[in-house]
Amino acid sequence: MLTLFYLATESAEGGFGLSSDILGSNLINLIIVIGLLVVYGGKFVGNLLTERRNKIAQEIEEAEQQAADAAKALAEGQKNLNEAQERAKKIVSDAQTTAGKVREEILAQGQKDIERMKATAVQELDSERAKVVNELKRTIAVLALEKAEQQLKETLTDEVQGKIISRAVEQLGG
């Protein structure tokens, strides 16, 4: 089986044969294989390495481009965030200002409503007081008339009535 790996070498008789020197034939085999690899495989391996180097360079360029795009997108996003924060601050400020104005308007309207209610209450009280005073006057007048009528019934006799009628007739011109 080892004889299959021996390299055919030229024998002393001028012919080809198998060499029994394992070390020498292995060295020759290695030299031939390396030579064939250098001659025929050099271009192939060189092409593979060149393609691999080009592919790596292209991937590096793509990664750098993606990094640049990401940095650009990040800067734009940061700019948009800053603008949004500024708009949010302005909206909050405007809302606070509007809320203050609305609060003042509500307080002013409330004060006006209170004043109006007070005025209405005073008018209603005055109206009720006037009604009560008129009712009291009427009641007093009725009571006074009843009292006078009662006193007249008690003190007015036929004789006193005759004197009053005579005096009234005299005053009228009689």
Automatic annotation (TrEMBL):
It comes from the Bacteria. It is found in: Cellular thylakoid membrane; Endomembrane system. Residues 46-94 form a coiled coil. It is a single-pass membrane protein. F-type ATPases have 2 components, F(1) - the catalytic core - and F(0) - the membrane proton channel. F(1) has five subunits: alpha(3), beta(3), gamma(1), delta(1), epsilon(1). F(0) has four main subunits: a(1), b(1), b'(1) and c(10-14). The alpha and beta chains form an alternating ring which encloses part of the gamma chain. F(1) is attached to F(0) by a central stalk formed by the gamma and epsilon chains, while a peripheral stalk is formed by the delta, b and b' chains. Keywords: ATP synthesis, CF(0), Coiled coil, Hydrogen ion transport, Ion transport, Membrane, Thylakoid, Transmembrane, Transmembrane helix, Transport. It comes from Cyanobacterium stanieri (strain ATCC 29140 / PCC 7202). The chain crosses the membrane at residues 27-46. GO terms for molecular function: proton-transporting ATP synthase activity, rotational mechanism. This is ATP synthase subunit b. One of its GO terms (cellular component) is plasma membrane-derived thylakoid membrane. Pfam families: ATP-synt_B. F(1)F(0) ATP synthase produces ATP from ADP in the presence of a proton or sodium gradient. F-type ATPases consist of two structural domains, F(1) containing the extramembraneous catalytic core and F(0) containing the membrane proton channel, linked together by a central stalk and a peripheral stalk. During catalysis, ATP synthesis in the catalytic domain of F(1) is coupled via a rotary mechanism of the central stalk subunits to proton translocation. InterPro entries: ATP_synth_B-like_membr_sf (IPR028987), ATP_synth_b/b'su_bac/chlpt (IPR002146), ATP_synth_F0_bsu_bac (IPR005864). Belongs to the ATPase B chain family.
